[in-house]
Protein 1
Amino acid sequence: MAYDKFTVVKSTAVPLPIENIDTDQIIPARFLKATKREGFGDNLFRDWRYNNDNTPKQDFILNNPIYSGKILVGGTNFGSGSSREHAAWAIYDYGFRAVVSSFFADIFKGNAINIGILPVQVSPSFLEKIFTAIEADPKAEIEIDLPAQTITIVASGESESFDINGYKKHNLLNGFDDIDYLQAMKDEILSFAEAKAV
Amino acid sequence: MANTLFDKVWDAHVIRKIEDGPDVFFIDRHFIHEVTSPVAFLGLESRGLKVMFPKNTFATADHNTPTINQHLPVQDPLSANQLKALESNSAKHGISHWGLGNPKNGIVHVVGPENGITLPGMTIVCGDSHTSTHGAFGAIAFGIGTSEVEMVLSSQCIMQPKPQSMRITVNGKLNKGVTPKDVTLYIISQLTTAGATGYFVEYAGEVFENMSMEGRMTVCNMSIEMGARGGMIAPDETTFNYIKGRELAPKGEAWDKSLAYWKTLKTEANATFDKEYTFDAADIEPMITYGTNPGMGMGISKHIPKATGLKGGVATYAKSLAYMGFEEEEAMIGKKVDYVFIGSCTNGRIEDFRAFASIVKGRKKADNVTAWIVPGSHIVEAQIKEEGILDILTEAGFTLRQPGCSACLAMNDDKIPAGKYAVSTSNRNFEGRQGPGSRTLLASPLMAAAAAVTGVVTDPRDLMS
C-alpha cells in the first residue's frame, strides 16, 4: 500500500513498559470486521484504553494528555500472537510512525515495515534509558534517523544504532512496497512456476 | 553441507535471493478467509491487478461465522459483509470458495489437510498465524499479514528472509493422560512465549514419530505461541496413510511420483541446526495455563510460580496474575470453572472429540459449566455423529455446535463473559482473547472434559480408567 516515506522522525514518545504486548491487546478481534483499512486507530489498545461503557480508563497512558508523539515505546516481545495486520494499521492510523522495543515478534515486525511503520529494535539497557528519560520528562524527544540507522535520546545525546536490511530500508526511504518489486519480476515467477509444475 | 528438512523445502522455493534483503519465495498453496483478505482484494483492485494463479488459492469462511443456525442469514451486519466480500472476491477471481453451508466448510487449518490440499514439501501461507498447523505434513507453512496476502494473490510470492533453524527433540514415551496439547504447552512453558522467535522449528524424536497426524497438527499449530514462524515434522508412513485417498490429494501415477519425492524430505543425519533443545517425555504431565500468555503453563500437579523466581518482568507477571484473579504459589486443581470450550484449529479434530468423550462417557455435565463443543469442520462433525460420540455427549447433557473458529477468538457471538473462567482447548490465553474480560485456562481435550464434568479444574488422570 502507499504510505509516507520514512526518513527522520524526531518526536516525543508514548511509553508502554509492558512485556509481551500481543496483537489481541493492540486491536481486539471483535474490531477486525471492517473491509477497509482505515479507522482502526480509534480502537487501538481498546480494552486497556476504555471501560466497558466506552468511557476512557484514566490510568491508561493514551488517555493521559501529557504523553503524545509519533513514537510508541513498548516492553520486550512486542506484537506477539495473531498475524492480524490490523494491529499495525491501528498503530499507524493512531499517528505512530515508529515502534521501539528490545524485541519484536516476527510477523508483527514484517507487517509494520510493509505498511510504513519502522520497528526499531534496541538493546534492553537502551530501552530502559528511553523509559527513564520519558519518565523524567514526558516531553523528552527521541530522534530516529533511518538513513543513519540511529536512535537518539535528544536531551542527553545518548544514541544507539539499529539493524534493518538494505532492501527494506530502501523501500521505507522511498515509500515503495514489495508488490512493486514482485510485479517487475513476473516473467521470472511464471518460468519458475512452469518449471516446478513439470 | 548436509541439509535439514527445512532447508530442502525452503531452498526449492526461492526464486531470487536479494542481496542484503529477503528471498523472493514461491508459494504453492494459499488459504484465505473472510477477515484478513478483503483489504488485500481492495489493494489488487486499486492497482488493477489480477490473481496470478487462482487455482492455488482456497477460500473458506471460519473466523466470524456463527456456530448455531448456520442456515439462517448471519445477524451481525459487519460479519455478513465480510462473508459476502469473501464470496464475491472469490467468484470474481475464480477462487474455490467453501462458504457457510458448503459441506466442506470449516476452520481453514482443519479443512486444508482433511481435503488433501496440504501436502509434504509444499509452501503454504494464510493470513492467520496458526497456518503453522500444516507443517505437520513436512510443509513450510506460516501466517502472513494482509499486505502479504495481496502479494501472494498478485504474484504467488512473498518476500521473506530465511529464518534460523531450531530442532526440538522429545524422546521417550508419553505418560498416561498426556496428549499432544500437553507436549506443546510443556515445550512453550520451557522456551517462553518468545523463545523461538526468528526460528523455524523441526520437531523430532520418538514422541512425534509415534504421534497421529491430528496430534502433529496440534503441536505444529502452537509453534507460533513460542514465537516461531512455523514448525514442521518429517513426513513418514503416518503422513502418507493420512493423505492417501483424500479428495484433492494426488492419485495414480501422480501419487507414486509425489510419494517418491516426499520420502526424500528428511533432515540428513549430520545436518546442523542454529539451536537445539531436547526434552524427555517422562517429564511431561497434563498441562494447564495460569496466566495471560501460552508460555505461562505448568503441570497440573504444580503450583503457580513465584514472580521472584522468574527472569525479569515482575510487574508484567503481577499484572497477568491480577487479571486472572490468581495468586503466586496457588494450585490450579479445584479452581471453579464457568465455561469449557473444545474446538479450534488447535484441538477441533476427530481425535480431540474422541478424547473428550472418553472422559465424559457415563458422567454428566456439571451444572455450573456452560460447554461449547465446536467441531473444526463439517467432516469432523459428521465423524462425531458416525462414531457415536454425539450420543455420549447428548447423554451427558452436552450439545454440539456447528463448525467455526468460535470462542477461540470470539469474533462471533461465542464470547466468554467478563471475569468468567474458561478451560479451553484453543491456543491463546491473552487478556480478552475469548471475550472482553474473559479468563482462559489453556488445556487438552482430556483436561477440558474433566473440568466440564466436575465443574472445577481437575487432573484428568483421576477420571481415567
Protein 2
Amino acid sequence: MDTRATQINAEQDSVIDEFSQFTGWSDRYEYLIDLGKALPPLNEKYKTDFHLVKGCQSKVWLHAEVKEDRLFLSADSDTVITKGIIALLIRVLGGQKLAEIEHADLYFIDAIGLKSHLSPTRSNGLTSMIQLIKSYTRHLPEPAQTDSENEPTDKRELMIAQIKEVYDPEIPVDIWELGLIYSLDIDQAGKVKVTMTLTSPACPVAGSLPLEVQEKLLLLPFVTDVELTLVWDPPWQKERMTDVARMALDMF
Amino acid sequence: MTTRSSGTPITHFDAEAIRKDFPILTRTVNGYPLIYLDNAASSQKPLQVLERMDHYYQHNHANVHRGVHTLSQEATELFESARRRIASFIGAPSDSEVIFTRGATESINLVAYTFGLSQLKEGDEIMLSGMEHHSNIIPWQIVCGMKNAAIKVIPVLEDGTLDLDWFLKNLTSRTKLVSVAHVSNALGTINPVKDIIRMAHAQGFPVLLDGAQAAPHMDINVSELDVDFYVFSSHKMYGPTGMGILFGKASWLNILPPWQGGGEMIKEVKWAGTTYNTIPFKYEAGTPDIAGAIGLAAACDYIDQLDRVAMAQYEHTLLAYCTDAMESIPGVRTIGTAAHKASVYSFVIKGLHPYDIGTILDQQGIAVRTGHHCTQPLMDRFGIPGTTRASFAIYNTMGEIEKLLQATHKAIKILS
C-alpha cells in the first residue's frame, strides 16, 4: 500500500470529495454517466478484439500507450455506466507515472461506494480492468504485425510449448507428442485456431482436454481468442505419435 | 410425517395471501421493498416447501434404499413417495419413469449421451429450434460431434414463434430426435408441442421437451402429450435448487444404456461385468438429493392446492398489463410477440444497454434479468446483444408492475 502524497491520491481525493456531495444514488449515477459521456472518444481503429478487456460482460475497449515513463489510456464501452466507471479510472490513473500506477492503492472505489452498487459481474469487470492497467506498467502488448516474417514462427513455438504442458491423464506423454493436435494457426489479431482429436471418442476426459488446451493458449499475452474444433475424422492412430512419444511408451 | 401447511387455504386467486407464504418478499433491496421479477431464472420458495425439507432433516434423515434400520426406511418411503407425487403431478403412467437429476440441464445431458451414443450414426440428424436455451444446444453439439451427426435448427419467425412449415419440410429419414422448449425462456412463446410431437411420431422418431419454463405456469400431462422425454427443474417451480426431473417413456429408458456409474444403479457387480438395476434406479447413481426430492414434492402440493385455472389467468393478466404499460413508453420494443405466451416479458429500449437498465432498476429494488438469457443464437437472430426480461410468478402484483413502469421511466431519464 502506498499512502504517499502522489498525483494519483490527489486525484482520488478530489473524486471522493465530488461524490460526497451527492445524497441519493440517482445523483451519483447521473454524475457517473455524465463523466462517461465526457470521455474523449476512442479512435475507431482501436475497437478491435485485441483491445477488448476480458472478464467484462459488457464490451470494453482499452488502449494504452507509454510516453516518457507515463501511461496514457483511452477507452470506450457499449454501456454508459461502465463507461462512467472507466472515465473515473482514466481520470485517476491516466497520464501518471508507471511506477506510481503499479503500486497505487485505489481507495476511492470503496470510498465513493462504487463497489457496493456494482453487480458482482460488473465488480469483477472492474477488478480485471484495474489488473490489466497495472500489468501495462510492466509490459505493454502489441497487436500482431502483418509485416513481420519471423514472428509467427516464434509464436508457434511458444504455443507448442504451452500445448506440451497438457497430458492425457492415462498416458505419460504430452498431447503434442501424442499427435492429438491436427492443426494450429494464429491470425494477425491473435486469434488461434486449433483442430484436435482425442485418443478415443469414448475418452472420459473429452470435456477437459480441449478446455485445458484453450486455457494454456490464452495464458500467452499475444493470444486474444482460441477457436478449438474437436474432430474424430481422421481418427487418432498410434502412428501419429512422434518418436519422442514412442520412446516414452517403449514402442520401438 | 408431513408438516402442516402454514398458509391460508386459497379458494380463489389471491396474490396478497400467497405473498405471505414467501418470507423473502418482505425484505428490502437498496432501501426499496424487493420487487422480484426474475422468476424465469429461479422462483422464490414458500414456507410449505422450506418447512417440509427442514422437517425431513430434523426427523427422518438417513441414506435411502440401503439400511434395514427405521430411519433409512422412513427416508426411503419419503423419497419414493415424493417420486410418486411428482409422477402424478405430470401425469406419468408409472413412477418408474420419473428420474431424479440435478436439474433440467442434467436431464437433457442424460438423454443426449444415452440416446446419442447408442442410437446415432454418422450422418444422422437431431432437430433443435432457434430459441433453445444453451442447455438444449451444447449437449447435442458434444454428442453429435462424437458421432459425426448433424444438428438442424427450426427457424424462429419475427414474432417469436417456430416455423412449423420448415420443420415439416425438413424432416427426413436421417432425423433421429427432435428436442425443443415447451416454453421459451427468453421470449415466453408457448410452442405448439402437440403438433410437433404428432408430426415427429408420424415419422417414427421421439421428442424431448424442455419444460423448465412450462412447469411453473401450466398443467403438464406427459401421457396426454404422448411425449417421449420431458425435463424440468425444481427451482423454477417454487422447489429447491439442485433438483430436476427427467420423465422418459419406459420403452425408451429400458433400452437406452446407463449413464453415470456408481452405487444404487447396479444389481450385481463383478470384475467380469456388472448387471444394472431396473428403471428408475439404473439412472440414479450415488446418493440422491433426498431433501430436494421431498422439497419438489412439497412444491407440487403447493401448486396443486391453488386454483390452476385462476392462476394461469392471473399470470396472463400480469403479462398483458405489463406488455401494454411498457409499450406505452417511447423507444420500448417487445421481443417476442407470439399470441400464446407464458408470463415472460422481454424488451429492449432504443439506445440503451440492457446492463445499464438492469443496474438502475436494481437500485430501485427491482430484480430483472439482463443479457442473452443463455440463448445467444436467438439474440443473434433478432440482432440484439440481449434484452431486459421481467418474468412473473403467482406472487407478483399489478402494483409491482406499476413500480416497474415508473422505475423504467427513471432509468431512461438517468441513462439518456
